[in-house]
Amino acid sequence: MKTTVAIIGAGPSGLLLSQLLATRGIDSIVLERQSKAHVLGRIRAGVLESGTVDLLRQAGCADRLTREGQVHDGVVLADGDTQFRINFSDHIDRPVVVYGQTEVTRDLFDARAASGGHLIFEVGNVAIHDAKTDAPYVTFEKDGKPDRIDCAYVAGCDGFHGVSRKTIPADIRREYEKTYPFGWLGVLSETPPVHDELIYASSDTGFALCSMRHATLSRYYIQCDINDRAEDWADDAFWTALKQNLPPETAAKLITGPSIEKSIAPLRSFVTEPMQWGRLFLCGDAAHIVPPTGAKGLNTAASDVHYLFHALQDQILNGDSQALDHYSETALARVWKAERFSWWLTSLMHQFPQQSAFDQRMRRAELDFLRSNTAAQSVFAQNYVGLPY
Ligand code: RFL
Ligand code: PHB
């Protein structure tokens, strides 16, 4: 097989890049380790920055998002019994849109199918070769048979556990990592959301997030022990812990019900540098991870795709290599700012097991400052809604 861009991974990064390239007549083949049903079964992000929405629009797959996505002009932050709202439009002229990653992925799959996109699922043993030459190629197995794609460029969109990042030799890669001493236990339930905006709540008993997908589907998270297993958390225990972490007036309004999905995610900050090696370019979780507290993972993946799409387009259609040569530094400049915001909000809102009484008071003082200071709220709003590309 032959194509211009071989894309490893059919998560949001790989699908969006493939669809954007198709709008400019640039062909690609997407290789995915899992089945399509498996990719669509993953419950992940819920909040889209306006830049992500614009990209999806540019890719021609924002019709349902425009109809069904909920535009949010603020979030609520809670500290123990008190809560306050940050109103985005007081500080910035863009909102966020609440629309699940599962739906984004479904829309991208549909758009790829409608424009004859070439996707190969359930592939094994993917390996990238000769990335430092003008003629890279990718080998893989499908149904036990070996196969090969010759290409001009390889986009590594295969997430944190993929093969692309590890193709860059260890003596060239620099990795920066921070792990957090807790995880997030998430529950999806067919109940009305407790509030019409997201609530990020900090309390002595731990962090909680109230989010949603639509009027009758809620997504809730609580901070949990890093060694917990989702199957050991009964629904009742989850609802009790969630109520404990929320301000009493919110807890009193919470409507509970059976969970339809329950999972635990570890929290990690991670960045690899550089994000390119010869003709291999990394995008999204393959190159960086954020803890979910700032809702930045999918959105940072989308900003990488924005830079890589424009750089490939300049190179392939106009022979201009300037942006592609500098893809890594351009993408990383924005990545590190998203890392900073996610790390800061995670540190501010969670209970750290070994934290001293002094450090806890510092967190509360910072939350109080945010509650009462419009400049601090403006910094929050600009970061949450998304920094410019
Ligand atoms: P993905 O989604 O991990 O997709 C990578 C794909 O590559 C495939 N793959 C391979 N394919 C072929 N060969 C191989 N060797 C392969 N190895 C892997 C995988 O099967 C997969 O299909 O990475 P991508 O596309 O970069 O997208 C990143 C986002 O998925 C991720 O950043 C977000 O989900 C993070 N995230 C959130 N981001 C936000 O912007 N806002 C949020 O509100 C938000 N909430 C979250 C989140 C992530 C969570 N979890 C579970 C990690 C909430 C949670 C709970
Ligand atoms: C979600 O709805 O899944 C969600 C929302 C905001 C976050 C993280 C996850 O910060």
Number of strands: 20
Low-confidence stretches: none
The average pLDDT value, as a whole number, equals 97
What class would the helix/strand composition place it in?
A: alpha+beta
List keywords for this structure.
single chain; 20 strands; binds 8-demethyl-8-dimethylamino-flavin-adenine-dinucleotide; eight-stranded mixed beta sheet; 29% strand; six-stranded mixed beta sheet; alpha+beta; binds P-hydroxybenzoic acid; 389 residues
Task: Give an account of the 3D structure.
The chain is an alpha+beta fold and 389 residues long. Helix content is 37%, strand content 29%. It contains 13 helices and 20 strands. The strands form 4 sheets. An 8-stranded mixed β-sheet has the order 6-5-14-15-16-13-17-20. Strand 14 (199-202) and strand 15 (208-214) form a beta hairpin. The model has no long low-confidence stretch (mean pLDDT 97). It binds 8-demethyl-8-dimethylamino-flavin-adenine-dinucleotide (RFL) and P-hydroxybenzoic acid (PHB). P-hydroxybenzoic acid binds next to strand 15. P-hydroxybenzoic acid is lined by residues 45-47, 198, 209, 211, 219, 292-293, 295.
What topology emerges from the helices and strands here?
Layout: E1 5-8, H1 12-23, E2 28-31, H2 36-41, E3 47-48, H3 50-58, H4 63-68, E4 70-72, E5 74-79, E6 82-87, E7 96-98, H5 101-114, E8 118-120, E9 123-129, E10 137-142, E11 145-150, E12 153-156, H6 164-167, E13 174-189, E14 199-202, E15 208-214, E16 217-224, H7 235-245, H8 248-253, E17 259-273, E18 276-277, E19 280-282, E20 288-289, H9 297-318, H10 322-325, H11 327-349, H12 357-372, H13 374-385
Parallel strand pairs: 1-2, 1-12, 2-8, 5-14, 12-19
Antiparallel strand pairs: 3-7, 4-7, 5-6, 9-10, 10-11, 13-16, 13-17, 14-15, 15-16, 17-20, 18-19
Helix pairs in contact: 1-5, 1-9, 9-11, 12-13
